[in-house]
């Protein structure tokens, strides 16, 4: 079953999450129509290879054309229209930057896998629950409702100001008419009546001026209250969701809704500002004793300008945190002299600002808050914000060619680069710009979340651990001294984040049994998730008992092994992985002989082994575990083929494969058959293929178990043997002769 088919079977609450990340950047129609083709391409590799990305983009357009031909024959007008629009979008938007579409599709597939993993979990973790709080959703709806009401109030006040202007013009006309009369005429009864009318009009003007100022004051107060409370909370929540998404959590949405709210509030404030300017204009033409305009207008204008300054300052955000394109799932870890990307957005979307705001990027602007290591940014570090590069027309800027370069210290040498000292140093990338609009000049500043600078890719695992710990433990966006005294983390939240590492990086999260094993490995005991506090040192700095490595180094090596060598088997859920030797034997002891399970080695970095149960002649149960396979061996032979071809020689018996059933009772070939590189009966004969003059050969993994041993020796190096030769051996030679030939 394709990944997309699994997605379509999810509950509605998960489907709503899927709906959030499909837009015009990558329309869902294409995901649906080309599901199998899309899933069969390596988009992640293309995201870092422009030539490969261009080929995939061209093939994607060809696939769209084929679908267009098909629906044209079916005369499906709506689908024809949508596919033509999508084809035009793909060609126009990504032709100059094909890696961008590769990044988008890779992220969408990864997020689908994360959601599928979350849906398979019995319960949501505490962090994910907090992000999907119904109170938060209700507040979002309230903010949108209040912003809309404020916009309507400001527009209604416009009509009141227009009525006031018309009333004052009529008063001016009547007053000037009387002023133009001769002195004798002014004493007439008619003029005296007209003066009474003018006085009544002046009273009405005074009342309407006070009324308009009162309405303007209420609009300003409502905006102030909304900005100070709910809108600020919404923005902080979005930033927290972004933090969590950066360390593998659910993709964060809501920025477009925030942009809509910020833009409408800015429009309302500028509308109020124009109303106050109109009142000032009316004041210059008419004033009187007790006139409310000269008393109230300056205070209201000062408040409006103050709110505009704050609104603009809060609207300048880092939409996408710094990330190296070569490591899209490890944001905020930057390597010296390697390009990274970062995207900023102004949530106030005014067409007048298009290409008018130039943003400057700097690093470690406040040098007193960071380590002795100093960096500068090389590349294009000043760019203009525009509405053309974003699919939704947002006012944004993306820096794509920045490189951090370490400056030499005053002593002439680089700073200390110890393995933990470097990866626990936090740095900040700052951005500044200036907005000039309608007579206002506003200086804006914002910063990325703290980043870790590395000079060697070997520092990446520990650097990523620092990013995880920081963003799990605090929502402070700029605590650069965090690791001077890092706080402990709640075990339940840490385990949830560890599961995210697997769902986001290798497509399948961890179940409760696997998390239990990790919890015991971290703590050395069975503990309550909710109460236990784990230290940073225990997670990343202290070696595991009796091992020359830390917990995190061990786990990161497993992630790397899965990603590069056993990914399909992991995604299918056939690798139990995290299970202790003791638990392993409890699970297998009552199973049919030949039942086996796959687990990650606890003593070897990046190793996977299998253990099977057997029964001796006297009825006793025995267990056999093969020496772990590491990436070196798995580079020579796919793990599925090892499971298929693995042979054991015991005493004088014929070599045979002891692996029959994957725990609990799945026939081995049913579980792994689709992952075999070729079927046994498809193996060539000596006369087929191969280099001329040579017999084709295959690698067969073999172990030998002696009579006095319950454990196989280390699997011998994969022995090259022609499959046809092996078949002949089994058919014509005795078991002893076969053993001699294999050994």
Automatic annotation (TrEMBL):
<dbReference type="InterPro" id="IPR008967">
    <property type="entry name" value="p53-like_TF_DNA-bd_sf"/>
</dbReference>
<keyword id="KW-1017">Isopeptide bond</keyword>
<dbReference type="GO" id="GO:0007259">
    <property type="term" value="P:cell surface receptor signaling pathway via JAK-STAT"/>
</dbReference>
<keyword id="KW-0010">Activator</keyword>
<keyword id="KW-0597">Phosphoprotein</keyword>
<protein>
    <recommendedName>
        <fullName>Signal transducer and activator of transcription</fullName>
    </recommendedName>
</protein>
<keyword id="KW-0727">SH2 domain</keyword>
<dbReference type="Pfam" id="PF02864">
    <property type="entry name" value="STAT_bind"/>
</dbReference>
<keyword id="KW-0007">Acetylation</keyword>
<dbReference type="InterPro" id="IPR029839">
    <property type="entry name" value="STAT4_DBD"/>
</dbReference>
<comment type="similarity">
    <text>Belongs to the transcription factor STAT family.</text>
</comment>
<keyword id="KW-0488">Methylation</keyword>
<dbReference type="GO" id="GO:0000981">
    <property type="term" value="F:DNA-binding transcription factor activity, RNA polymerase II-specific"/>
</dbReference>
<dbReference type="Pfam" id="PF01017">
    <property type="entry name" value="STAT_alpha"/>
</dbReference>
<dbReference type="InterPro" id="IPR036860">
    <property type="entry name" value="SH2_dom_sf"/>
</dbReference>
<dbReference type="GO" id="GO:0051093">
    <property type="term" value="P:negative regulation of developmental process"/>
</dbReference>
<keyword id="KW-0013">ADP-ribosylation</keyword>
<keyword id="KW-0805">Transcription regulation</keyword>
<dbReference type="Pfam" id="PF00017">
    <property type="entry name" value="SH2"/>
</dbReference>
<dbReference type="InterPro" id="IPR036535">
    <property type="entry name" value="STAT_N_sf"/>
</dbReference>
<keyword id="KW-0539">Nucleus</keyword>
<keyword id="KW-0804">Transcription</keyword>
<dbReference type="InterPro" id="IPR015988">
    <property type="entry name" value="STAT_TF_CC"/>
</dbReference>
<dbReference type="GO" id="GO:0051607">
    <property type="term" value="P:defense response to virus"/>
</dbReference>
<dbReference type="Pfam" id="PF02865">
    <property type="entry name" value="STAT_int"/>
</dbReference>
<dbReference type="InterPro" id="IPR013801">
    <property type="entry name" value="STAT_TF_DNA-bd"/>
</dbReference>
<keyword id="KW-0175">Coiled coil</keyword>
<dbReference type="GO" id="GO:0005737">
    <property type="term" value="C:cytoplasm"/>
</dbReference>
<feature type="domain" description="SH2">
    <location>
        <begin position="570"/>
        <end position="672"/>
    </location>
</feature>
<keyword id="KW-0238">DNA-binding</keyword>
<dbReference type="InterPro" id="IPR048988">
    <property type="entry name" value="STAT_linker"/>
</dbReference>
<dbReference type="InterPro" id="IPR013799">
    <property type="entry name" value="STAT_TF_prot_interaction"/>
</dbReference>
<dbReference type="InterPro" id="IPR012345">
    <property type="entry name" value="STAT_TF_DNA-bd_N"/>
</dbReference>
<dbReference type="InterPro" id="IPR000980">
    <property type="entry name" value="SH2"/>
</dbReference>
<dbReference type="InterPro" id="IPR035856">
    <property type="entry name" value="STAT4_SH2"/>
</dbReference>
<dbReference type="GO" id="GO:0005654">
    <property type="term" value="C:nucleoplasm"/>
</dbReference>
<keyword id="KW-0832">Ubl conjugation</keyword>
<dbReference type="GO" id="GO:0060333">
    <property type="term" value="P:type II interferon-mediated signaling pathway"/>
</dbReference>
<dbReference type="GO" id="GO:0003677">
    <property type="term" value="F:DNA binding"/>
</dbReference>
<dbReference type="GO" id="GO:0060337">
    <property type="term" value="P:type I interferon-mediated signaling pathway"/>
</dbReference>
<keyword id="KW-0963">Cytoplasm</keyword>
<dbReference type="InterPro" id="IPR046991">
    <property type="entry name" value="STAT4_CC"/>
</dbReference>
């Amino acid at each position: 079953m394709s990944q997309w088919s699994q997605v379509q079977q999810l509950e509605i609450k998960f489907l709503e999450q899927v709906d959030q990340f499909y837009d015009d950047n990558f329309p869902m129609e294409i995901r649906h129509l080309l599901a199998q083709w899309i899933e069969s391409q390596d988009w992640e590799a293309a995201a870092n290879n422009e030539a490969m990305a261009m080929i995939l983009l061209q093939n994607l357009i060809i696939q769209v054309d084929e679908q267009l031909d098909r629906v044209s024959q079916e005369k499906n007008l709506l689908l024809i229209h949508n596919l033509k629009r999508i084809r035009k979008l793909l060609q126009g938007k990504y032709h100059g930057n094909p890696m961008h579409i590769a990044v988008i599709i890779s992220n969408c597939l990864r997020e689908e896998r994360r959601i599928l993993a979350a849906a398979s979990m019995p319960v949501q973790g505490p962090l994910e629950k907090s992000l999907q709080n119904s109170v938060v959703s209700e507040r979002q709806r309230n903010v949108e409702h209040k912003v809309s009401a404020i916009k309507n109030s400001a527009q209604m006040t416009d009509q009141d100001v227009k009525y006031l202007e018309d009333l004052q013009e009529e008063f001016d006309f009547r007053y000037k008419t009387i002023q133009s009369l001769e002195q004798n005429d002014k004493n007439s009864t008619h003029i005296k009546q007209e003066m009474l009318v003018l006085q009544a009009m002046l009273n009405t003007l005074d009342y309407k001026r006070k009324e308009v100022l009162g309405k303007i004051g209420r609009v300003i107060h409502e905006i102030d209250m909304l900005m100070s409370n709910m809108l600020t909370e919404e923005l902080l929540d979005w930033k927290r969701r972004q933090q969590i998404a950066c360390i593998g959590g659910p993709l964060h949405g809501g920025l477009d809704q925030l942009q809509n709210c910020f833009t409408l509030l800015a429009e309302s404030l500028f509308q109020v500002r124009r109303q106050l300017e109109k009142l000032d204009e009316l004041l210059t033409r008419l004033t009187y004793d007790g006139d409310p305009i000269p008393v109230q207008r300056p205070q209201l204008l000062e408040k409006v300008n103050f709110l505009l300054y704050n609104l603009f300052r809060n609207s300048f955000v880092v939409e996408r945190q710094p990330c190296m394109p070569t490591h899209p799932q490890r944001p905020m870890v930057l390597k010296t002299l390697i390009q990274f990307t970062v995207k900023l957005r102004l949530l106030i979307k005014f067409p007048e600002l298009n290409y008018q705001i130039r943003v400057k990027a700097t690093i470690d602007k406040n040098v007193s808050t960071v380590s002795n290591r100093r960096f500068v940014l090389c590349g294009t570090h000043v760019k203009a914000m525009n509405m053309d590069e974003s699919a939704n027309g947002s006012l944004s800027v993306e820096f794509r060619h920045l490189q951090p370069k370490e400056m030499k210290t005053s002593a002439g040498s680089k700073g200390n680069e110890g393995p933990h000292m470097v990866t626990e140093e936090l740095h900040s990338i700052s951005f500044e710009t200036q907005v000039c609009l309608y007579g206002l000049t506003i200086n804006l500043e914002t910063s990325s979340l703290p980043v870790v600078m590395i000079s060697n890719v070997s520092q990446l695992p520990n650097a990523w651990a620092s990013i995880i710990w920081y963003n799990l433990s605090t929502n402070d966006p700029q605590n650069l001294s965090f690791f001077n005294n890092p706080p402990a983390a709640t075990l339940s939240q840490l385990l949830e984040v560890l599961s995210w590492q697997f769902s986001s990086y290798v497509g399948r999260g961890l179940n409760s049994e696997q998390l239990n094993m990790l919890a015991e490995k971290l703590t050395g005991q069975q503990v309550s998730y909710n109460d236990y506090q784990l230290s940073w040192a225990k997670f990343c700095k202290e070696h595991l008992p009796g091992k020359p490595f830390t917990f995190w180094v061990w786990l990161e090596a497993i992630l790397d092994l899965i990603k590069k060598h056993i990914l399909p088997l992991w995604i299918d859920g056939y690798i139990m992985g995290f299970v202790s030797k003791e638990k392993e034997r409890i699970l297998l002891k009552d199973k049919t002989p030949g039942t086996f399970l796959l687990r990650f080695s606890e003593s070897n970095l990046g190793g996977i082994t299998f253990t099977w149960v057997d029964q001796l002649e006297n009825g006793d149960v025995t267990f056999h575990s093969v020496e772990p396979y590491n990436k070196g061996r798995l580079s020579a032979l796919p793990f599925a083929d090892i499971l298929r071809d693995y042979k054991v020689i015991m005493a004088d018996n014929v070599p045979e494969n002891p692996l029959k059933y994957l725990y609990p009772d799945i026939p081995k070939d049913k579980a792994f058959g689709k992952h075999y590189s070729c079927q046994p009966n498809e193996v060539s004969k000596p006369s087929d293929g191969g280099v001329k003059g040579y017999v084709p050969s295959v690698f067969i993994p073999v172990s030998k178990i002696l009579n006095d041993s319950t454990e196989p020796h280390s699997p011998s190096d994969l022995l090259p043997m022609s499959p046809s030769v092996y078949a002949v051996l089994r058919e014509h030679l005795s078991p002893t002769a076969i053993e001699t030939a294999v050994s």
